[in-house]
Amino acid sequence: MIKVSINESRAKKGLVVILKEKDIFRMFAKRICMDTIFYFTAPILITVFYKLSTGKPVELLYPYSIAVTIYCIWMFARYISYRNFYHSLYKMEKNCAYKGQFMKEDEIRINRAFNQVHKQYLQDIKKMEVEGEENRRFLSAWIHSMKTPITVQDLIIQRLNREELDEKTAIQDIMVENTKLLSSLDMVLAMIRLQEFAKDYKPEEFDLENEINQIINDNKRLFIYSSVFPKVVNECNDSESTKVLSDRKWNRHMLEQIISNAVKYSKEEGVVKNIVFRLAKEGKKSVLYVEDEGIGIEETDLARVFEPFFTGENGRNGRNSSGIGLYFCKEISEHIQCELSIESKISKGTIVKVVYLNYPSDVLNSL
């Protein structure tokens, strides 16, 4: 039975090869159909013309035998070339690294185009795999950050049930943890929208100083409860210097995250700290400096603060850092074409620098 199955398998493989050869010959026959018609039309017309013009009998066997022989040799050579090309394509389908036995210029170009398409295809797959892995890591870190406030709320409720906390204190503590949950949800929603940034991008001209004042006003409770107070300093000579072209919403997301980090790493029980928003001009670019008086960042961590999920020494010291915030800011800055950088010294504070591009009025009006 084993021998029979092996023979049957070989027979099937042979049948597949025969069918492929038949397909090649059928496609080749269709390809040369018009060539054949034109090739034999010429000698036939010459023969008819000679017969009608001279009236003499015409020898047909010898010249037509030569014509048919030359035609068969020519078509056989073409068929071999066509067959080799077809088999090379088949091997390319099975093995993408196969370079092919190509001789003609058009065949070489086809091989080169195939390899280029395949190379691009592999690059796209690799990019999708990297993005997928990054999304999985982000989702894992986000779920982990969501679990902490939920766990704390559960512990607060348990203490309330055991009458270890009064209702007012419990509600206040739950509201604090709920704020963390909302902030985390806003973060993940913004990250999802950032993946389709082109659909949600609307550049417009706005006054950066006014925008900063508005953001500070919207986050005044954060500053008050953390005993961290903001101060806006405009070092520009005229009001036009604080006007920038950017996406107002995404710029707001970025600045709010920078402010959140500055407050989180600045607040200290019983100590009043300041955050200075300094507007300056560097050539044709508007620059915003966000300077805090916080704990600072280790020099060894500065080079990696924009990497996803990197928490550094501060995160390991219990500052509830997810390692997502600054990565999120960096992604936004690249999308809205800002330059983002950080300087810091331990126990001295951190300076976040945001450089905006300025555009002439005629460019702004054309947008």
Secondary-structure map:
Blueprint (H helix, E strand, L loop, with lengths): L1 H53 L6 H34 L10 H57 L5 H28 L8 E5 H11 L1 H6 L2 E7 L8 E5 H17 L8 E10 L2 E8 L6 H4 L9 H5 L8 H11 L3 E7 L3 E9 L3 H6 L1
Parallel strand pairs: 2-4
Antiparallel strand pairs: 1-3, 4-5, 5-7, 6-7
> What's the total number of strands?
7
Give the CA-CA distance, first to last residue: 78 Å
In what range is the share of β-strand residues? 5-15%
Strand neighbour order, sheet with most strands: 2-4-5-7-6
Question: What is the CATH superfamily classification of the largest domain?
Answer: Histidine kinase-like ATPase, C-terminal domain
Class from helix and strand fractions: alpha+beta
Form type: elongated
Kindly identify the CATH topology of the largest domain.
Heat Shock Protein 90
Mean pLDDT across every amino acid position: 79
Main beta sheet: strand number and arrangement? 5 strands, mixed
Rg, Å, rounded: 37 Å
Order of helices and strands: HHHHEHHEEHEEHHHEEH
Query: Which consecutive residue ranges, at least 5 long each, have pLDDT under 50?
Result: 1-19, 360-367
Determine the oligomeric state from the structure.
single chain
Query: What fraction, in percent, of the residue positions are helical?
Result: 55-70%
Total helix count? 11
